Each structure stands twice: as C-alpha cells, then as structure tokens.
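This part of the workshop introduces the protein records we will be handling. To make this concrete, we reproduce a full record directly below:
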Amino acid sequence: MMWLIIPMKQQIKIENKKAFHDYHILETIEAGIELKGSEVKSIRQGSVSLRDAYAAFDGNQLYLYKMHIAQYPGSFEKIDPMRKRRLLLHKHQLLRWQKRVEEKGLTIVPLSLYTNNKGIIKVNIALVKGKKLFDKRRDIKEKETRRQIERQKRNMGAK
C-alpha cells in the first residue's frame, strides 16, 4: 500500500503596522487581488512590502498602488515590482466605498496580505481617516500605560 502525503499550504501573513499608527480605521473588507504567477511565488516567500501602499479608484475599478513585490529569482518574466494591481470586489461593495471616498475624503489602505485556508492570496483593506499628531501621541501614551499595568500585574504575581 502506498501513502500519498499532501503538504499543508504555507500560511502567509504580512501586516501594514504603519496603517494602524497613521490612520483611524473606519471599516475593513477582504478583497481578492489580481496577480501574475511570479508575483504569487514572491509573496509566498515573503518578498512584499505594504508600507506606502494605498488603493484608489480608476473609473469603476479599485487598484492597489505602491505595493512592492520583489522579482522572483529565476523568473523569465520581468514584472514591474510597483505596478498597480486590481482588487477584486463585488460591484455593490465598490460602489458603496467609491461613494464614501468621494463624499467624505477618506482613503483606502491595505492592512494585511495573507493566504486563506484554500491557499488563495487575499488582501484586507480598510476605509481610513488620517490621524492628527496629537492623536498619535495619545495612542502611544495609552499603549505605554497598558504596558506598565501589565508589568505591575506580572511583578505582583511573581512575588
């Protein structure tokens, strides 16, 4: 009898931590992303950066700009690492977000890039509003306070 071993698909999760620091997140949604073969291989290696990426409408379609996906070594096809990539959403989702962006001057940024349980690459995008400098300072102060409280709890429990 011969056994067939099927390897589990590697789970990938790349986060845009800068987005949580720079923006107030109002609403999130999961979207598919249109990629080429060598881009998928590079993402599975973790050669991607979401740092300055944002999404914008071009006509009725939503595109992701400034997401850097490094060239896959050994690939014959040369793809621009900073090219715009189409996001795959339902028409009613696109229309609703397009209206909100135009009316209120909001921005769309990617929060994370990951593979779902079927191995398909998805991007979690968010409708955001920019934070002011004092908001960022307040968030840092709250984070420090939480850390101090946790440290004190650990120290009390150790004694």
Q: What stands out?
A: The chain is about 35% helix and 30% strand. Residues 13-131 form a domain with the Small Protein B; Chain: A; fold (CATH 2.40.280.10). The mean pLDDT is 85. Strands lie at 13-15, 23-33, 48-49, 54-58, 61-65, 68-69, 85-88, 107-115, 121-130.
